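User: I'm curious whether this sequence folds into something compact or stays loose and floppy. Could you predict its structure so I can see for myself?
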Amino acid sequence: MKIRRVLATAVAIAVTTPAVMLSVTPAFADTEPAAQPQAKPTVKELEKAAAEAQKAYDEAVAAEKVARKVVDEALSDSSPLAVAAKAARKAAEDAATAKTTADKAVTDAKAALDALPAEATPEEKAAAEKTLTEAETAATAAATAKTTADAEARTAVDLADDARVAAVRVYGKAQAAVEETLAAKTAADAALARAKEEENQGGGECLDEPGLTTVVTGFPSKVTAGTATTFSVRVTNGTDKDMEKVLTYASVHATDKSGAKDIAKYLKLKWSSASSPKWKTVDGDLYIDTIGALKRGEHGDIELRLDVDAKAPAGQGLTFIAGDYFNKDGCGLTPDAAVNKFDIKAAAGKPTPKPDPKPSKTAAAGSGVTPQGSGSSVPVNTTNGSLAATGSSDATAQIALAGGAAVVLGAGAMFLVRRRRTGADV
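Assistant: Here's the prediction. I'll summarize afterward.
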């Protein structure tokens, strides 16, 4: 049974969002605070903290749903304020029409008065003057009514707009609360998982070994459903000691374009080496046990193949590639893991069967790594808790930020708490 890492249970990573830095309290941090060291929390204390973090997250999610409903109502044309604003605008339009009509009546009355002939009787003149006076009075009232209606319309519209802005702001705060509580929950869960593993397993921790490195070459920036792509991994012992057993860790994660749906089931990693040239699927432990011993200064080469099922939807993917060594007197881990981000393109039509890629003779022979593709990889540092990756990303704004953030934080945190104990089975 190979070494178990918590990362083997990591959730799929959403590569459409930026990598998330985990910020945790000293109780959950890997490093001691600069001030007085704090007592290490017990499993019971961490269970309580994890339960409280879960509760806070659940409440934040519920509040976000309520805030979303408020936003939907505020943006709806049928909301009370929107209906009132519409009615006020209609009243203002009617008042403007009434004023136009009244003004025309004044103009017509003046024209009628001016058009009276010289021989008009006093009664005719008096009637025309009365009509003008009444028209002017009506016009003045109509103007006042229009001014009032315009002001009421502006007020009603402003109230509706203010309500929309306020609702959106509240929703934004609710989303931020979801992300913050999710980060706390993920950190608490990771700390609890680490503590339980330390409690169940004896022995000391495996230490970071800067001299043990993994370099990925030829990883593509884009893959298409229904195809397979090969790339190379070189593990090098750059230390001043011999390593009795070296293992390579490899995992692949993927989500759809929304960043919330795990589609990793459509992706498979296979490996090949000089000692085992036939393609083999990376097993559930996510370890490749083929390099064996590496003397100081030596390296081992592995070729990996990424198979993408023809049914895979468009999305984004990410791989972790790392290395561990185990000696009788201790063990070590690569401080950095190569992270490779790539886009997944859905098949345009019925996929055309293609032959499986054959292992590279150069890589299989162990004499070097031949570059393939155009992708790149960058390290993930497991000491300071940062997660970095390169590659293309979908910058489309999403309302459902929490879903994407959840899988990012989940995979990132679980990678950070991968096992570092000498007592593991190998």
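Summary: The chain has a mean pLDDT of 76. Residues 122-200 form the longest helix (79 residues).
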